[in-house]
Amino acid sequence: MHNTTKLITNHIFCHLMLIPAFMYGAWWMFLAAFMWWQVIAIIAISGGYHRYYSHKTYKCSRWYQVLMNALGIFAGAGPALTWAAVHKQHHAYSDKELDPHSFHHKGWFAVYVNTWGYDVKIKRKFIKTLWRDDVLNWFYKYYFKLNIAIIVLFTAIDPLLMVFGYAMPVLLAFHGYGILNILGHRNGPSNSAIANVLTAGEGWHANHHAKPGSYEIGHKWWQFDPTKLYIRTFFKREKGELNAAKV
Q1: Greater confidence, 246 or 126?
Q2: With pLDDT > 90 as the criterion, what percentage of the chain qualifies?
Q3: How far is CA 165 from the centre of its chain?
Q4: Percentage of the chain surpassing pLDDT 70?
Q5: What tens digit of pLDDT does each residue of 66-106 get?
């Protein structure tokens, strides 16, 4: 089965989990799921898949890389290895035909629901350094098995734990990055406060494309970027680059 089919199947499953969520969930469970997703987004997706693996804007320890990859499972966005490679290619060919997820060429529906993954061909130069990372390779190899294991384990503990601890973060990631991929490129790289709410600081997309090597995506004081604040708090800057702190 194609990996894109596996991802889409999981997204459909998580959308179906909205039924028990509204039938049996309480308001605080929805709030807790949103806050849990923010943690995942800051550490794993925005801070990990994106600002670390795609752009290497800071340095971190090996165990912290394991943590980023493990938390990334709860976003349902696929393994960091392919995510980062696709993002590198996106920057190289932004809004052009070879951009893997440009809605100007793929169509907004394909980009939003991720069917663009069936056609994408990642150029070797964007993935070759990522392939050398054994942590990335391990999570790539076992990514879907780990998803199934989490679903089974959480369901065994409490079905609502699976619904709000796993399915809801996947849904928030799905729609957050779907919105970002559309609104973030509506007129070339564009800022979107709407996308920013669900992506932990990724919404200031024009800023990011202007300075992709910076860990700061929110440039102005009012451009809320919790991932920037997290990196700034736990990682220190020396001689123009970030070096690992005790995290």
Answers
A1: 126
A2: 85
A3: 16
A4: 95
A5: 999 999 999 999 999 999 999 999 999 999 888 888 888 88
Q: What is the DSSP string of the chain?
A: --HHHHHHHHHHHHHHTHHHHHHH--HHHHHHHHHHHHHHIIIIIIIIIIIIIIT--S---HHHHHHHHHHHGGGTS--HHHHHHHHHHHHHTTTSTT-TT-HHHH-HHHHHHTGGGGT----HHHHHHHHT-HHHHHHHHHHHHHHHHHHHHHHHH-HHHHIIIIIHHHHHHHHHHHHHHHHTTBTBS-B-HHHHHHHTSTTBHHHHHHSTT-S----STTS--HHHHHHHHHSEEETTEEE----
CB 116 within 8 A of CB 106: yes
Full-model pTM: 0.93
Range of the domain at 55: 3-243
CA 219 vs. chain centroid, Å, equals 20
Query: Could you tell me the sign of the dihedral formed by the alpha carbons of 7, 127, 51, 62, in that order?
Result: positive
Residues 6+ apart with CB under 8 A from 177: 45, 77, 198, 199, 202
Structure token digits, residue 2? 């194609």
pLDDT in tens, 146-178: 999 999 999 999 999 999 999 999 999 999 999
- What is the total count of domains within the chain? 1
